[in-house]
Design brief:
The chain is mainly beta. It is 6% helix and 45% strand. It has four domains: 79 residues, Immunoglobulin-like (Sandwich), CATH 2.60.40; 86 residues, Sandwich (Immunoglobulin-like), CATH 2.60.40.10; 63 residues, Immunoglobulin-like, CATH 2.60.40.10; 83 residues, Sandwich (Immunoglobulin-like).
Length: 343
């Protein structure tokens, strides 16, 4: 009986015996970028048959198999191979794919003073809007302004100080060929400053223009008490500025207006004021129009350095004078010489 069973035992062993090889698929950890293709392959055998998610792939009977991110990401692949009449199936391999959030921008910097027309942000001159690409390790960055490439702007953060419509494109560093476009434009409008000007009138006053709802005057940077008026008397020589509230955004101080010669007036209130560029003098006297007559400018030693005749509005050009202290004499009048300083 024992001898008779031996052939049966040998037959049972052969029925469950495996092939003397173990096929595998490489790479075992494929992750594809958007729109990317990859290649799976196995070792050299006599025949091959590939499967996707357990389903036979017709005509895929080569040693390698090309896979595509769009159609194959998230699927498992196996390959059945035959060598010397013995057939074996490989372990499955998952083909995965990278998925990214759409590109976006993070807004920073100064806050806009208003937002109109469905997101059009308005800023004042001197403000800065920053746009930061919301993507991990972005590469191949391009910024655009009004549809044109911003040359030299290749970083993930863009500082904006001029009016325009901005957008960008970039790719994640792990998939540098997967370029994404923002798809929208960020509108940044930088409005003009509302800056008043100062002029001197015939009454020896400084006046702000345009008019506003309130005023604040400054002398040498210090606020002047009780100066909520469009015009103020010149009580001391120095640098005058004014803030005019017109109820508008982007309101700023005026340019400085330098008043000199104050305190050396005659009985008719002569005032000498230099324009902001220090290129000419304005000569006014209360109750009198100084439109005619000669004038002389002397230096600190009493030497004549300039002379001429008043014309029209009473301006005297001083661009030829160097820095220093001078005396202005109006010829043929009872006005005392007026001292002024040329910066």
């Amino acid at each position: 009986m024992r001898t008779a069973l031996l052939p049966l035992l040998a037959l049972s062993f052969n029925a469950v015996a495996q092939c003397p090889f173990d096929p595998t698929i490489e790479p075992a950890d494929m992750i594809l970028c958007p729109n990317e293709q990859g290649e799976l392959s196995t070792q050299v055998y006599d025949t091959y048959q590939w499967y996707k998610n357990g389903e036979l792939l017709p005509d895929e009977t080569a040693q390698s198999l090309f896979v595509d991110q769009y159609t194959d990401a998230g699927s498992e692949f196996t390959v059945e191979v035959t060598l010397n009449g013995c057939t074996e199936m490989s372990p499955p391999v998952l083909v995965d794919g990278w998925a990214f959030l759409p590109i976006y921008t993070i807004h920073g910097g100064d806050e806009p003073h208003s937002i109109v027309n469905e997101g059009e942000a308005h800023y004042c001159p001197g403000d800065t809007l920053t746009l930061t690409i919301g993507m991990s390790d972005p590469v191949h960055i391009t910024w655009y302004r009004n549809g044109q490439v911003l040359q030299g702007a290749e970083g993930p953060v863009l500082a904006i100080t001029t009016t325009g419509y901005y957008t960008c494109s970039a790719a994640p560093g792990i998939c540098p060929n997967a370029l994404q476009y923002l798809g929208v434009e960020v509108a940044a409008i930088f409005d003009e400053e509302q800056q008043p000007t100062i002029s001197a009138n015939d009454a020896g006053e400084l006046c702000a223009s345009p008019t506003g709802t309130s005023y604040q005057w400054y002398l040498n940077g210090a606020p002047l008490a009780g100066s909520d008026a469009a015009c103020i008397p010149v009580g001391a020589q120095g640098s005058y500025t004014v803030f005019v509230d017109q109820g508008l955004p982007c309101q700023v101080l005026s340019e400085p207006f330098l008043a000199t010669g104050v305190g050396e007036r005659s009985t008719v209130g002569l005032v000498v004021v230099q324009d902001p560029a220090h290129q000419r003098l304005s000569v006014q006297a209360g109750g009198r129009t100084l439109a005619n007559g000669g004038w002389t400018i002397m230096d600190a030693l009493g030497r004549r350095v300039l002379e001429g005749t008043l014309q029209g509005e009473g301006w005297i050009g001083t661009s030829a004078l160097g820095t220093g202290t001078y005396l202005l004499q109006l010829d043929g009048t009872d006005l005392r010489p007026v001292r002024f300083i040329k910066p």
